[in-house]
């Protein structure tokens, strides 16, 4: 069976990490959540610059730190792929999904290709913004304070289904509606999607 490289994408509060954790119990994979990979370093750099350690929306973060987090996560992904591991990647990956060549560059850096690695994208969505807001509130993360304090601005730039510009067959992209309870049936459908060969 081919190696699996699975991206769990979507905006804050949709439940990307929760869905990924459920599948990780059934599929052995390196579990790379970009928040975990870069969080401590980003917070320290923000603190050193006298900025809010929970900021992920300012121009400073976007210009100076955003790519550091994503590129570091990408490098760890490449190392795991090259070592023969399945990899789960959890983050919005907004810019990366728009870059048509990004996924091929990642695979090439690992010495691999789409013939050897089955790339899947699970776009985790919710049916409405109120559910999303409640989930963001329930996880009680200081990092989400900006979103909640500027909710009208935040929800205006939310796209429920991220645009995937990578050269993948339609069968490699799953829009996963995570509204309501995350039932065994929903998890099973995502599992079957990941395990199927594209």
TrEMBL record:
<dbReference type="Pfam" id="PF13671">
    <property type="entry name" value="AAA_33"/>
</dbReference>
<protein>
    <submittedName>
        <fullName>ATPase</fullName>
    </submittedName>
</protein>
<dbReference type="InterPro" id="IPR027417">
    <property type="entry name" value="P-loop_NTPase"/>
</dbReference>
């Amino acid at each position: 069976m081919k190696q699996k490289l699975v991206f769990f994408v979507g905006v804050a509060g949709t439940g990307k990490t929760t869905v990924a954790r459920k599948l990780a119990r059934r599929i052995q994979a390196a579990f790379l959540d970009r928040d975990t990979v870069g969080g401590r370093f980003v917070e320290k750099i923000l603190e050193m610059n006298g900025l809010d350690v929970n900021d992920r929306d300012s121009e400073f973060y976007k210009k100076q730190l955003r790519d550091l987090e994503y590129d570091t996560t990408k490098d760890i992904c490449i190392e795991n792929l090259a070592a023969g591991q399945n990899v789960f990647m959890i983050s919005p990956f907004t810019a990366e999904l728009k870059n048509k060549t990004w996924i091929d560059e990642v695979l090439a850096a690992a010495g691999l290709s789409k013939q050897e690695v089955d790339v899947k994208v699970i776009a985790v969505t919710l049916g409405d913004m109120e559910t999303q807001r409640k989930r963001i509130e329930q996880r009680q993360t200081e990092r989400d304070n900006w979103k909640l304090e500027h909710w009208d601005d935040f929800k205006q730039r939310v796209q429920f289904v991220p645009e995937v510009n990578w050269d993948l067959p339609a069968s490699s992209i799953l829009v996963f509606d995570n509204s309501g309870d995350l039932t065994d049936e929903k998890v099973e459908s995502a599992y079957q999607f990941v395990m199927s060969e594209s």
